[in-house]
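User: DEAD/DEAH box helicase. Structure?
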Amino acid sequence: MNQFQTEGSRTYYLKIDQSDVFRLQAYNDSGNRIPPEVWSPFLFFADKDSFFGMNVQTDGLDLLLTPADFVRLFQQEPHHYVQFSGRRLEDDAWLKLAARVADSLNDSALWQNVSIMDGQILIDEAYGDAEIRSFLTDTIHHQLRQKGLTSTQLPYILHFVEHAGWDGLEPADDYVLAMQLIEPDDSGLWIFRTALRTKRGSAYWTPSKRRENEVIEKVLPEKWRMHSAQIQTRQSLILSLCPSVDRYEDDHFYIAHWTDAEVLNFLRNDADLLQAFGIEVSIPSWLQAVQESKVRVKANVTSPAKKASVVGLDQIINFDWKFSLNGHDLSMQDFEQLVTENREFIRVGNEWVRVDSNLLMQLRQMIDEAEDADWTLKDMLFHNVPDIMLEEPADEDDPLVEFHLNKSLKVLLDKLLDKRDLPETPLPDNLKTELRPYQKTGFDYLVFMREEGFGLCLADDMGLGKTVQLIAYLLHVQRQQPEQPSLIICPTSVLGNWQKELERFAPDLKVATHYGGNRPKGQAFLDSLATERPDVVLSTYGIASSDSEEIQSITWTSITLDEAQNIKNMYTKQSRTIRKFKGQHHIALTGTPIENRLSELWSIFDFINKGYLYRIKQFQEAFMVPIERDDSEAAKEKLRQRIQPFLLRRTKKDPELQLNLPEKLEQLEYCPLTPEQAALYEGLVQDTVQKMGTLTGFEKKGLVLKMLSKLKQLCNHPSLYLKEPYTTADELLPRSQKLERIVTLAGEIAERGEQCLIFTQYIGMGHLLQQALNELYGHEVPFLTGNMPKHQRDALVAAFQNGEFPIFILSLKAGGTGLNLTAATHVLHADRWWNPAVENQATDRAYRIGQTQFVHVHKFVTIGTIEEKIDALLTQKQSMSDQFIQSSQWMTELSDEELKDLFTYSF
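Assistant: Predicted structure:
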């Protein structure tokens, strides 16, 4: 038992991996992997720094921690009944390292070995090993951020932290030691001095003028005299936080006389340091009011264009600037004078105010830029100011810069906001399908945003056809004969889907797939693009990240991220790398732009329109904290208004879409074989084909049927074919893209509050799905088989219909008839049945009388295998005669050459 454990408590066993961040996985006593939302609250239960886990970052089933967070969390007192232990020896070593780092932070000798160079924190090599020093550096950075300080301020607090620690001075028993700033007297000089007060009182005591030169012990009132040595020490430590004050070790109370410039220097530098460590600072009330002064800019924005129809985002706009200071109007001349004189304190009306000269300079720079650079509406939208898209701010809003748009500009902005009356773009003639009306709107929006220079997120619900809208867009772009191809980055599990959909709907597009161990890299990759001149390059997130150097060297005609939630975690190397890729137009496709945290939305927008949602720290302050911590409706509405122009979101529940959608959509989900599956597949086919030449007709039929079953199980997962025992989901999923895709899709459906059925012919496949969904998503998924008693079967059906569980796995034969499962909106066929009627009967468990919702049917097919070839044959045969295909028996009648062609792996 380690130091983080308590007797009699529940134990979570942590697997810890460290790269740029710490990735933590938790397992229970049974070895099952537990989702972070279950166990992380016990880790964050006393952690105020993260708002008790409110800002926790996850990536799938991994909890992500910075080194500083890791040290902080594992040095605190453990939860009273939950304990954490390492799953492996190396995991225990990480936990012990956290304790060693925590001890070092409380070691006064540390601070004698800390220095700053070019803004970087350095720890002398003589202090601890490299691992400890790295942790300490990150932790010091974190402590500074928590106090609102920067590394450049570290030298001014080293002495204080060495002797008082990061939490500051312990409260004294019966007094408060403060620093007092007193406004100028007739001499024009300010007084800055040490003062005391009782804990319950508000009046400050300081030595009289005639006793200022006496030592602390003699001048103190009797009630505090016993604390004289402590007061002297505390005064010295407090003054060490003031860069304006030379190191003070005197035994007198500190007093200094300052000019205005010295006071301003104190307010700019020293006051923040004192307040960061909880030191009481008393300044005149009017000076406090001065610190709260507000400069505001309003601009009436107009367009020279007389007609709204000719106004575009590139239309130059005019500004009529208005200024105010603490509610008092200023002319442009007054504003210019303020900036030019660089004054800090000025009198406005009957009050003194302090203005931020740096802010004034930034405002003038913005105004000069807008006037001199001929700002367009596009420039204004992307300028880093709040509420710029609001015609009139709400009464409680008080924006720094406020824009009022005239009617013609407002009309154009409404097109972005409502996605209505967009310019019509003719569909490409070589698009081999028809678009539904809402899909045509999506196509027009994609083209409009490209022409206006804006990235976008197409966030239509699953099944509404994001892929075909994007393919139509790619055909439109290709007609313009771009110099570089378009790039599509997608998860490995849907790479085959993209290949097939592009081939089906846009056969004229030349597509290159950048994937696999034999792919060209570096200069060879660039040379292949120059030689082959593809219109579209397909790649995966993993490959794009590992081959980032060559991909970053190209400015692509467009870059599309499919399942863009794959870059949701801004801190991962993959996300940071892909967000740096350069394209003339950036597009994100995702049905779930926000899965858990607003930071995921920021990450996607950082890709499509970098800088539009500010830097992450400002986004956290403006949106994440008020929304995720305080549930602020005002902040939610402000964020909705800000992202609306660049996010197109349609759901199956939209009434206007229901009229245009079929009641059932059937979709093939293509998945490639893994290298392991492909090798086993080819070996099995070669062995069987050799045997067929030596067998009689009856024997050959038996061999073909036996081989069919083996191939189908192999397409599902190699462990079914090899008859291996079950292992963990982490080990199972990488061996089968089909299994990974089904589990991921089912998990996403459940997380959206929908329900799905998964049909499979094989008991083993059902158990693999059960195990993976339980481990990865925490769902107890029932599996209905032919051996299940009727009362248990009926109870499961009723529970599913009542919404008691979201995912239901069924054996195709046992669950294919006689059941009413209309609560499901998705049907997933994990493996194909050679008789379409059987599949349709299974689908009709959800798509039947009583079903009031749109049903999405997903049929999983492995590329280049018998599954894909049979699917093509079934389509042909069904059009000839439904009676022709009754079972798999028809395949035994094929010739040896036909069978060989049918079985051969051709990807």
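The domain at 667-903 is CATH 3.40.50.300 (Rossmann fold). The radius of gyration is 34 Å.
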